[in-house]
Design brief:
mainly alpha, 6 helices, extended
Length: 236
Amino acid sequence: MPLAEWGALSDIGNLIGIWIAGLLTLAVLSYVLGDNPIYRLAQHLFVGVAAGYAAALAWNHVLSPRLTRLVQDPAEAWPVALFVLLGLLLLARGLRPLAALAGIPLGVLVGTGAALALGGILTGTLVPQLAASFVSLAPAAYGGGVMGWATALDAAFLLFCLLAVLAAFQYHRADHGPLRLWHRGVQALGRFGRLVMMVAFGAILAGAALTFFAILQSRLAFLVYDWLGSFVELGL
């Protein structure tokens, strides 16, 4: 086929893709008018395509290469056989006499997932955050001068906020003994810590909202410049 014909087919394919994307975008945005069949159709298409794409990725990049290794070299790839067996045991939930066997791979999944999550929290969040809280409060450590003082004050404020947030999770009964003033001070610090958490959660929510509006702006720009621009190509 000549290159000119290939180019024409490519242009037609791009135009069809733009129209499908534009119509689906309008179908999703129709939710602002309330739940309707057009929106539900787009929702079902998205879920179905996403599930199919995930299944294709799982087969092409996870299952197929490992099964190929198992067939070609069973002696070296024997752990793959164990994993395949555990995966097949999950299907036993559909058979009542063998449903108890499905608890084995589920237990492995839950235990491994919990261990990975706990390890990730410790090594990726808690320990680095604790290490980052050990900072110098001396301006000389930051070069001195105005910038040194500003950096030191910033570090001191961050450390104070960290202690305040930790104090917000102090729970104890009312004490009328010699530690009464200490407990009141911790409670006051905890109230400030809750304020800090509210500001942090508000900033996270604002960041999520900005991300949403950025995506919305990109889709509206697509409709205006690409989808409506395709009308010019069609001579409409």
